[in-house]
Every structure is written in C-alpha cells, then in structure tokens.
C-alpha cells in the first residue's frame, strides 16, 4: 500500500497504550512522524524509540491548556506544524445519572470533551501553517445511543459530535477537515469494568457478535485521517459491528431469551399492501418484508410454543401521520369508517396478541386500518 502520511507530523492523544498505541504504529508504518503523547513519560519515550521513523514523545495532559500549548510548540520545533490530530485520550467512569459522583463526572467531561476541544484549539493554528490538516475525534457508539450506567461517558461522547460539526464548519475554509469515529466495543482495557474485570457491554447479541479488534478500528481511523476521505468533514464514521441495526436483529437477539408461551409482535403498515397518501417506497418495502419475516418466524418458533404476529396500522393519528396533515382528508376518504385510527386502537391489537387469549394465533397479520383494505 502506498504511504499516505510520508513525513507528516501526526499527534495522537493518549497513545501510550490501547488503541492510541496501535494507531501510533500504523501511522508510522505509512511514513508519518508520530507524536506519542500521554502522562506516562517513561513508557511513552520507550514507545517512541521503538516506533522509530522520527517519532517523539511529548508529555501531554489533554485536560490542561498549558500542556497543549507546550506540546504543540515542541512538535513545531522538532517536526514542524501538525498535519493530523487524533483526539483519542479518554477516561471512563461507571455509573448512571443518579450514581456517578460529581468529581468523576467532571473528570470524564474534562478528559474526553474539554480535552478534544483544547486539542482542536491548539492544533488548528499549527495546521493553518501547513495549508490544512485533518482532525479525527474518537467518539463511540455511546455518542449515538443512550448508555445507561455510563452517564458521564455517554454525555462526553455525544458532546464530541457537536464539537466535531461546529469545528468542521469553522475550519473548512482553512482546509482542515474534522470528523468523528464511533467504534463499537473494542477489545482494550476500557471495555472492561476496572473493578470487576467484567465486560461492560456483552456483545453476544450484536449482528457481529464480538468485540472489534484494535486493528479494525485503527485502520478505519487512518482512512478518515487520510486524503482518501478528502471530501468528508463534519461526518460521523460508525464501526459498531451492526449494533445500530433494526428490529429484525432485535428479535434475533431476543429469541434465545423468550420462554415457551413467549410472543413476538411486530408493527408493520397497511400501506405495505396498498399505498395511500405520499408513497414512501423504501419505508413500505421494509414493512412488506416484515410480513414474510413474521410468517417465517412463526414457522421457526412454533415448536418452542412461541408465537409471532404482525399488526398493520392504517392511517393512525401520530406525529408521523397527523390527522390534520396534508393528505389527511384523502386518507379519510379511503376508509369505510371515514376516520383515522388512534394509538390506542393499535395498542389494543398488540395487547390482545400478547394476552393468553391469543395463544393459538401465530403467523397472522392483523390489520387495524378502519377498513382501508376492505
Ligand atoms: N475500548 C472500547 O470498547 C471503546 C469503544 C468505543 C470508543 N472507544 C474510544 O477509543 C479511544 C481509545 O480508547 P482505548 O480503548 O484505547 O482506551 P485506553 O486503553 O483506556 O486508552 C485511553 C488512553 O487515554 C489516556 N488518557 C486518559 N486521560 C488522559 C489525560 N488527561 N491526558 C492524556 N491522556 C489521557 C490514557 O492514559 P493513562 O494510561 O495515562 O490514563 C490511555 O492511554 C477512547 O476515546 C475511547 O473512548 C473505546
């Protein structure tokens, strides 16, 4: 593979261990002059020596503004202006909103969010001297979803998304790209409870049911940092093993935990059979797919005494399709009952299918549409 970073100064925060250390090697393998940074000086210096290719170690506490000024000045003196900054350093405190101690909350925000903010602020003037550069902020799937039990960490990783987009806007005309990377669970110490050593997030239910290797994420970050991604800025690059996939996978994940007598109820749409109002092709395709999914599931789960059914609402008064919306009168004219359904109408069908009275119903499609399909 041709080198993408020949002689470019690349500063990676928190690079004495974990993902940061792996990235330091990988950037150097592609010709970069790597700046290993962190608070463990002896280990950092050894690592820089081992990496070679002009790599240096600079002590850097990301939460400290003066430490940043010193680091950037040292890099400029020894290697020239910074070309790539990877904001990778992070601290994780376990605890929900009501549990996490305030000082731990502050430490997480100071390290993960303020650290990245100070890094962008310190590196941008240096990058301008190069005529541009690339900043990659390591967020997480915790920056894309709610993360019960990781209140501070999740908030810091969501904050990074906004910081990334704001900086991307502000720095684009200086040819500095700013993007975020959102890994799923990576096999590093951060993925384990520091006290018990247990996995913080079990990965068995993911579409790819394992942790990411450090190499898988490292290669992705190098791509985002490189000119191969030259038209991307303010973008969120997700590598999550399919964590964010939809209900079919959720069902797959739930099946092993369903006892005999269990119920799977999916919500489709009457529009899968007859398009009304504004056609939404992809939307209705997914709803049609739920019909065959439900019938297949009923066959598969029947021997375990688990039922699978589908409820297909017609025009129902919710935010998605309000009863006073643009095509509402047209939709009403198609229904023999001449009105929209309510969320309670749909809930009644779901509740019935979940009840003991529905134990002999499986593979069925119940349409609650005011007669739309009549
Ligand atoms: N592992 C995962 O499952 C996972 C999943 C999604 C995202 N991520 C993200 O991936 C990135 C790398 O994490 P990792 O898994 O490699 O974790 P890690 O092994 O714990 O590495 C984190 C690094 O950050 C450094 N650090 C912490 N506070 C610092 C500070 N104030 N100043 C400078 N350095 C500091 C640590 O150095 P010290 O040793 O000095 O504390 C350590 O080298 C992080 O942004 C993390 O949030 C990880």
Explain what you see.
The structure is a single chain. The model has no long low-confidence stretch (mean pLDDT about 90). The chain has ten helices and ten strands. Helix 5 (about 150-170) links the parallel strand 5 and strand 6 (about 175-185). The protein is α/β, with parallel strands linked by helices. The chain folds into two domains: about 10-240, NAD(P)-binding Rossmann-like Domain (Rossmann fold, 3-Layer(aba) Sandwich), CATH 3.40.50.720; about 245-370, NAD(P)-binding Rossmann-like Domain (Rossmann fold), CATH 3.40.50. The strands form two sheets. Strands 3-2-1-4-5-6-7 form a seven-stranded parallel β-sheet, with helices on both faces. The chain has helices at about 20-30, 40-50, 65-80, 100-130, 150-170, 215-225, 245-255, 280-300, 330-335, 345-355; strands spanning about 10, 35-40, 55-60, 85, 135-140, 175-185, 235-240, 265, 305-315, 365-370. The radius of gyration is 26 Å and the shape is elongated. The N and C termini lie far apart (about 60 Å). NADP nicotinamide-adenine-dinucleotide phosphate binds near residues 19 and 189.
